[in-house]
Amino acid sequence: MGLTLRLAWLVLxxxxxxxxxxxxxxxGTVALVLVVTLVYTVLDNLDRITTEKSANLKLIATEKWxxxxxxxxxxxxxxxxxxxxxxxxxxxxxxxxxxxFLGSLEADQSSRDFNSFIFAFVMEPEKVLTMMDExxxxxxxxxxxxxxxxxxxxxxxxxQGIILGQSRMKKLNKKVGDRFKLYSRNYKDISLEFxxxxxxxxGRYDESTxxxxxxxxxxxxxxxxxKGKAHPLADKSLNLVWLRVPTRDAFNEVANQIAEAPxxxxxxxxxxxxxxxxxxxxxxxxxxxxxxxxxxxxxxxATLALVIANSISISVRExxxxxxxxxxxxxxxxxxxxxxxxxxxxxxxxxGFFSATATYAFINFGLGxxxxxxGFLPTFDVPVSAxxxxxxxxxGTALLGSLIPAWSACSVKVSEIFSRVT
Amino acid sequence: xxxxPTDCVIVDHVAKSFRRGSEEVHVLDELSLRVPEGEFLALMxxxxxxxxxxxxxxxxxxRPTSGEVTVRGEPISRLSEGKLALxxxxxxxxxxxxxxxxxxxxxxxxxxxxxxxxxxxxxxxRQQVEMALNIVNLSDRMHHRPGxxxxxxxxxxxxxxxxxxxxxxxxxxxxxxxxxxKAAEEILALLVALKSSLNKTIVMVTHDPKAAARADRTLHxxxxxxxxxxxxxxxxxxxx
Amino acid sequence: xxxxxxxxxxxxxxxxxxxxxFTVWGMGSFLAILLVINRVPVMYNVLNMVVRWRNxxxxxxxxxxxxxxxxxMQAFVNGMxxxxxxxxxxxNVLILAEGALDEAFSSLAMAxxxxxxxxxxxxxxxxxxxxxxETYLLAxxxxxxxxxxxxxxxxxxxxxxxxxxxxxxxxxxxxxxxWFSEAGIRPDPDxxxxxxxxxxxxxxxxxxEMGRDRGAIDGRSRKEFVVGDRFELNNRVWxxxxxxxxxxxxxxxxxxxxxSVVGPMFGKExxxxxxxxxxxxxxxxxxKEFFNTEYTKAQLSAEVESEYYKxxxxxxxxxLYAIIIVACIMAIGGSFGVMNTMYAAVSQRIKDIGVLQLxxxxxxxxxxxxxxxxxxxxxxxxxxxxxxxxxxxGWTANSVVSGSGGGGKSVVxxxxxxxxxxxxxxxxxxxxxxIGGFLPAISALRLRALDALx
Lengths: 422, 240, 454
Description:
heterotrimer, A: alpha+beta, 2 domains, six-stranded mixed β-barrel, elongated, B: six-stranded mixed β-sheet, Macrolide_Exporter_MacB (chain A), ABC3_permease_C (chain A)
């Protein structure tokens, strides 16, 4: 048996000599690595969705100067073509238009609460399958896709159809096939009759709703016929248009075409990639994210290093005699150093790995994502890389925390120790 | 056995046995003895003879399997655990071989410790502590920590701590066992003085015949039984 | 979405001074009971902590970390709460068009404004009602960034008819400079051919933010904007005529300009908002009811201003909720560290425990002594953490406040460390100390005096 192997055995032995202390240190590590894993999850997800893609990009066209973006619906046709004029102009490969419709099942304003509330994307039904984030990536063989495709098919046939998110439908206490009337909150004096034709797959769209664009359009026309004047939002009923382009070059060309098109000047339209749009939105959370990255995570790691340093220094002090004996027996100082570092490392790696893996499993499979929503962004899943990060975090802090105690262990003066004992 | 008003300690047919695994170990076997008020008694005997067990029973640290220990008229084996603790504080002073002082506290604070359990004002405590330290002749060292004192000095602090509650009975377990002969002699002189000038009853366990010689009487234990009695230093004659 | 009911309960209890008072009372009486039971001198614990100062320091620093971080995080949430609480002036009524959930979505007919302003209940200064007519809008500004990039920032612009009246109604005063002119524009002295400059008065927080971005691009000064500074927006150059005094409200993050200039510029020619001042909160409630139910000339949705801003605290709750969870996890982690220290303390002092038991100290005395030691450790580390957290007081940070209706404001807030923050930090430290000390103290009881001394 090689010396390294024997040392490794010794490390394991020592780790289990005071199981209570090892357990407490490990539990402390688990708790603190958990926090770091959560912070990492948020930051990693944000990095991912704000990283510019190079191919198959989604663009968002919105009003240039103002928020909320409110464009006339007539813009859709031109924007869908990327304001292309000639044969040589670049055209988006797909598009989707969105209007936001907020409504309640309660006619009486005072009795409206969150449970009777609906937030709907008013859009082209067929685009649900080709342009909505995540839904456009469903495998055609999956049951989710088949169910959704069936719902979309029904929506195409039924102008009054509506697709609901599963938990929203539960809160409304409805089921597929039910009918209800929706009183709008943002489209004043518009109320619409609906029949539920299907649901979104579980996950990101649990609280979402979608119905047909032409249904809203007819309701606005009807308003004009009834009241003799256009609805106040008649010319502002398009909130944004999604475009899909194959490359970054195509994005730049489309953005230029739209910026220069005279028909999109009043109100003016801007085009940005979805990721840069999200990046701009996150600017509002800049300092919070800074705090999570540069205060919360480091403070957790520092606390962890302290906990480990404390525990290792206790065990080193209790074993001073033993280290002295080992020295007498011929162990080299570096071997004693390795022994102590190895102990800390072992606990750190095992606890860090366990914590990150458990967090991964619990958040992703137990909770269906981190229950901390930032604005309209989807709930975050713990990335697989978090397991690696958690393990390294445990290892790194363990090394950091055990360095000084390990040094004091290997520099034990044999003569001093024995003179104190006898 | 009839209790005499002058007996400080009466040990009446006391037996003590422990379980060690499946085996029953008899440490004390139907042992009886009396210690009159103001006597300095030494208990000797080889390791495992049961002398420390006997001391613990007398001091109320342990309960006999059968029989009764009466200290100053109080049958202590009938006291509850809580009452026994308070009874010990008021009636027994302990002196140990390794002094057992709290290392972080000064001599003064160590001596004061048992008084904290009694209803006393700070001023009363101060008076008692200073008196006790004065008796053991350590007034000038009262703010030193145990680590700063010699073994003999530490043992004197231990004795002051045993004295401070003014107990009738002092039990000492090998009080000179860890000391050189000069320091041991000082400690023994101190114990004798406590007996003679303060009329304390002292029960001391010892291995050291010289120590036992300073006692009024020496009892020898062997296998849980008393073997003979030796009175006074002058009657000491090769008991081995 | 987070469970709003639970959050509300937590928020309420966290914010309620009564809750804190109750905790302090509870903790105080707990400590008092411990001290009454205690017989082993506290000096004994202190001296022992000094003797093993390395472990004392290591475990106390873990407390310092946790409590310091908690203090900073709480200071942030405090800043958000202060913002949503101070933005509304007492007695103010916010009048929006019916159905508008947020100022940004509202649209009031200009023709109605005069009649609305002259309703009974609204205070007057001579003939002039204390009403501010405003057009609130969010504008997207392209901000140049290093390396030729640009980012887009959302500016909250409030077009005002009368800035002096607006300042009066909102309780905002100028810190430096002057209000923008009646025209709201001025010629560019550097370039007579250029379009006139748009005059603005800037909130202090916004001035900091803009200065920060200017610093990022020119790499030199990150100093906040001052009177005379310019920025570009909507193809125009804007000129700062005044900076508002910082109040900690959401107006700190706004840009105020002439309604007749910015309204048409962004296609919002109508007012979005009217803010009316009444005598007190009761009159404000009455006026609100009146506009919502009896007033028929226009369809309005009135709200007491302070309640309107209170509704924007949903984000606050979300963050508070997250902080509580994170603080709990960290506290648990830290407690394990203390537990290690205390277990070691117990095992190092087995003999002491034995002696104490021989002296007649009861089990409860020994239990209490060790628990007190752990609490002392916690208090020491916690106080240090509070001290470090105090440094965060006065930092500014940007954030977003929003309500459930979807309206949101991008704000600059001031981190606020108050007494409640410090006390709750210390309370958490004590709880950690208790958790960390209790089990080891119990383990000390399981030792028998004689076993320890033999």
